[in-house]
Amino acid sequence: MRVFLAVARAESLTGAAPVLRMDPATLARRIGRLERTLGASLFVKSPQGYALTDLGERMRDRAADAETQFNRAIDEGQGASEALTGQIRIGAPDGAANFILPKVCVAIQAANPKLEVQILALPRVVNLSRREADMAVMVSQPVAGRLSVQKITDYQLHLATRRDAPPIRNRDDLRGRPIVGYIPDMIFDKELDYLGDLAAGGVNLASNSVAVQLQMLRHGGVGVVHDFVMPSAPELHQVLRDVFSLRRSFYLVRHSSDRHSDRLTRFSTALMQGMQAEVARLEQRARLTGSTVI
């Protein structure tokens, strides 16, 4: 079941191999043996990867339910006073994944040495129903699915550009400046559509990655930057704060069937507290180090 679920989620042998700590050839043999036992194909195999058949999709859902029940039994056997163990995977947009979660997760793992924490950074919404992750940080609340949602914290965003760029005192000064932002047709969440009418003339330098956008801004242009990112880019400063200021929120989303998991609840509590503290710390540091220009 573990092998089948890992390959189904990764959609390839090479993607599942590191998760299971097995080589792809071993995984291929295990999948082949399972299919021979069933007398039916679970995957359509191609150079692009392993895609589930209709039967495979039904089996994935049943196997994921069985996995949930098994993990719940393990949780019940782990005393609340004991350190966390096992593997926990968090899905997150790459802004949080790059600039917030690493410090937070390192601290949680240091307090729980037998715990393995994985951060899944994706330019799309993480599919918890397919168990791509145990929980996900999202920038808007999902409206469908058997999910539980908790607000983590608010965060702020402002326009930023290089400190040595020509000054920007009003919107007219933005004319002729290359605009940095998301690839318009790859914005996977409406809360990430930051630019509005500022991008009316088009986005000159675009990426689906916050980290790549930051690198672009380091070399020129104007774009929206999270306040908690500013300490990582001392060559940038914020502009037009009085006319352009955004507030967004992070939410922690879990599958509703995990609400009785003591292990995941303890981890999610530590994760939320850590994210709240880290966002506050970085935003305060941005203000104190002069990243802002009022």
Automatic annotation (TrEMBL):
GO terms for MF: DNA-binding transcription factor activity; sequence-specific DNA binding
Organism domain of life: Bacteria
The keyword Transcription appears for this protein: yes
PROSITE patterns named in the record: HTH_LYSR
Domain HTH lysR-type residues, every copy: 1-53
Keywords from the named record: DNA-binding, Transcription, Transcription regulation
Annotated GO biological process: DNA-templated transcription
Pfam families: HTH_1 (PF00126), LysR_substrate (PF03466)
Signal peptide stretch: none
InterPro entries from the UniProt entry: LysR-type_TF_proteobact-type (IPR058163), LysR_HTH_N (IPR000847), LysR_subst-bd (IPR005119), WH-like_DNA-bd_sf (IPR036388), WH_DNA-bd_sf (IPR036390)
Family statement drawn from the similarity comment of this UniProt entry: Belongs to the LysR transcriptional regulatory family.
Protein name per the record: LysR family transcriptional regulator
